[in-house]
Amino acid sequence: MTRGMKMGVSMKMRLGLSVSFLALLSACAVQPEPFTASDLAQQALDDRLALFKDTAPLAGPMTLDEAMARALAHNLDKRSKMMEEALALGQTEVDAFEMLPKLAANAGYTYRSEYYATRSRDLVTGITNPNINPTYSQDREVFTSDLTMSWNILDFGVSYYTAHQNANRALIAQERRRKAVHTLVQEVRTAFWRTAAYQTLKGDVDRTMQEAQAALERSRIVERENLRAPAEALRYQKSLLETLRQLTLLQQDLSTAPLELAALVNLPPSQDIRVVVPADLAVRIWDMPLERMEDLAFNNNPDLREQGYQTRIAVEETRKAILKLLPGVSLTAGPQYDSNSFLVDQQWFSAGAKLSWSLMNLVAAPTTLKLADTNEKVAEARRLALRMAVLAQVHVAERQFRNAVTQFRQSDALWSVDRRLAELSEARSASNAQGVLERVAAQASSITSQVRRFQGYAQMEQAYAKILSTLGEDPLPPESAGPQASPSGAPGAVLAAQQP
């Protein structure tokens, strides 16, 4: 090799070492970079705009059906469940490619500073003839490339069962979305009727509190001027303060209802939400036999379906464990290229087969199979336990609904009596202080009874939604239920059999 060639190789080596050293230094110099105040502000602004970007504005007072429709269309928690389902369905599409043969394109470059020169040695004498010059049969620079298709039959089998498992996981994601929808509908029903109570009673509560506060101030003036016995004035003030405290607690409890409803239907918390309150709160009717309810729950309940798919996954895991005990066969084929000028054929086609078998897997086979069998039994036991829990839920939900209907009817009757008492008290109240106290107390009692009436109705609606959730009734039609409709055709099945 000439001196110039050696210097060129030396320069290349030094350049490569310098680049590697700089890369190492740059990797060590990485430091954590926290968000700046401007970054956080911009992120908050972008997220605020994205929160309500696709939410349609309210055109007027909102009905219960509209509230549920808005929640199902725009609620962020439900969106995340739908995205999880879409992600799981996307994984099943990827698994289809995992079962296909692998096709890999490779290219390489090799450089040697010296020729790959060799001498020959006599096999018998072990002497190398110094009179024979070294020879070489490979260029110093070589380019290689190949396009190889490979297929491992064992990997294909494992990928096949993995694809089945991921398909079941996609169905599990769908059932979890259905359950999230059921929970969302229950929450919307409760928040809607609490908002209706707040909207209906807010004016009456404010007026009664103002009247009670004015009467309290007048009583204090009377007490200071000794126009009434101190004990009588203090008892009067205590009654008014108790009434004020009761009304304040009611107001505080109901004031958060519009905010909860706004969050569920994905509206800004600052927006004034008005709901349509029916003139008559109709009682729900449910007369489906318990045997029919049990059958529907066993077929459509999302928790039971999910556990059924978990059992399938456990079975597929057992099949994978058995398959991994078998020998693997790899098949390869593809064109090859090598730029070495000493080769007679620089392009050729190669094919091969390889058998491999992990003997240690045979040693671990009894333990592996025992673990897989235990996993199946655990999944089966969970499914049976959950079926028993769902069976109990059906009876509990039906009993809770009956109790809620009874409580609402009692609250409605009590409110009717308190309302009439308040009207009578208003009609006969005089200008004296005792008349004001009686009127305020009667109004507070009427308001409290009406709040309990709305709460009872909300509990009845929630119990009704709980029945539908336990039976697996979907509020969405199949075509809008997400990336994949319910496999059993459950949507509408319950309401078709029972119209409350």
TrEMBL record:
Region (Disordered): 469-500
GO molecular function term, any single one: efflux transmembrane transporter activity
KW Transcription regulation (keyword) present: no
Gene3D superfamilies on file: Outer membrane efflux proteins (OEP) (1.20.1600.10)
Signal sequence residues: 1-32
SUPFAM superfamilies (UniProt xref): Outer membrane efflux proteins (OEP)
Lineage top rank: taxon: Bacteria
Record keywords: Signal
Xref: PROSITE patterns: PROKAR_LIPOPROTEIN (PS51257)
Record carries keyword Signal: yes
Name the record gives this protein: Outer membrane protein
